[in-house]
Amino acid sequence: MKRFIQTLKNIFSIEELKNRILYTLLLIAVYRLGYYIVLPGVDSSKLNIDTSGLLGLLDTFLGGAFSKASIFALGIMPYISASIAIQLLTMALPYFQKMQKEGESGRKKLNQITRVLTIFVTIAQSVSYLQTTIPTDALLITRAAFTISSVFILTAGTIFCMWLGERITDRGIGNGTSMLIMIGIVSRFPRAIYQEAVSRGTGEALIFVLEIVALFLVVMFAVALTQAVRRVPIQYAKQVVGNKVMGGQRQYLPLKLNTSGVMPIIFAQALMFIPSLVAGLFAEKSDFASSIATTFNDYTTWEYNGLFATLIIVFTFFYTAIAISPQQIADDMKRGGGFIPGVKPGISTSDFIATVLDRITLPGGILLAVVAILPSLASMTGMTREFAQFFGGTSLLILVGVVLDTLQQVESYLLMKRYEGLMKSGRVKGRTETVAV
């Protein structure tokens, strides 16, 4: 406790770090304030928005704003969708690839394109959200007037959230976009704990304590999965520059066990509604289609979790393949005078890195699938649905990743001012690491 208090004193003794933390807290407070502002023309007491399946995940990311029909009902998610689309285009189209290689000017152009695309995505999602989730009996004005006004408000709300995220990134602490998502998830945690404690009651207090211990172990498992790295040694040849001998040191190429992060889970969840949707079209004519629809509407069935886990493993290989290019890494190493001991530069190095990636991607995908299906397993034990969501899946991985990145930034400030780090056992490592090439 004494060390913890001293660390807090060290943090707030650094003027720049203190200002960044306070600025971040202020913007987070503004963001949460928008949760309580309901769209004009809606009677919130008559809202009964279904948040099952993918909509439930979206509502979790937005801290409940989606189900409350607030002005931040779509939050930062359209910006996330636009960013993913631009990222995929950057990997597929030469025009965007060229723009990405232009340095700072290219990055600014891509950011501007992402912002413009966000507006169109938000408008499309706003219309869909208003038409399919807001019941007519909850409206205080005509449907047409409500739709037109709310599309403008929701779009402005998303743009404002995007601006908040950029301000946190530039002048605050941590990645602003990820921080807003994390705050939405964390805001539901106290309520989930309370509901679980009430449902267990005094007669099952020991079970509730065991659930808390299990949650702690799951979080530690998620941290280990996020941090696990296969370090490939790289040796740099010695070079004579003037009167000095440069190079000759050994560094490491960090290949993460979970290179793809939460993307495989997000892609897999986006596809899991298709079986029930297609089967539902023929449910009245076929008992088999009806059983399929029923099975895949329940996320606790073994069929649902089996398909979900398989999709996650497939997408883990897919996303790793498009995110890391062994050939490019090998070329960069060759230009920098680096080589892997015992491996020839060029094609042999590329093949070696690809082999290592294949060997770590499979266990990484399996472990990621285990984390993804843990909430359904937790629900089967009798936990409340909201509390079970914190036992794995996208929510837990986002929480772990954002917290590690933020702590890494804080520790960097402490070490820069010659203070001790946050941990005695070593430095805090975030998700972003520099490749030694």
TrEMBL record:
GO terms for biological process: intracellular protein transmembrane transport; protein targeting; protein transport by the Sec complex. One of its GO terms (cellular component) is plasma membrane. Gene3D superfamilies: SecY subunit domain. It is found in: Cell membrane; Membrane. It comes from the Bacteria. Its main location: membrane. It is a multi-pass membrane protein. Keywords: Cell membrane, Membrane, Protein transport, Translocation, Transmembrane, Transmembrane helix, Transport. Pfam families: SecY. The chain crosses the membrane at residues 21-38, 71-96, 116-134, 140-164, 205-225, 261-282, 302-325, 360-381, 387-407. SUPFAM superfamilies: Preprotein translocase SecY subunit. The central subunit of the protein translocation channel SecYEG. Consists of two halves formed by TMs 1-5 and 6-10. These two domains form a lateral gate at the front which open onto the bilayer between TMs 2 and 7, and are clamped together by SecE at the back. The channel is closed by both a pore ring composed of hydrophobic SecY resides and a short helix (helix 2A) on the extracellular side of the membrane which forms a plug. The plug probably moves laterally to allow the channel to open. The ring and the pore may move independently. Belongs to the SecY/SEC61-alpha family. This is Protein translocase subunit SecY. The gene is secY.
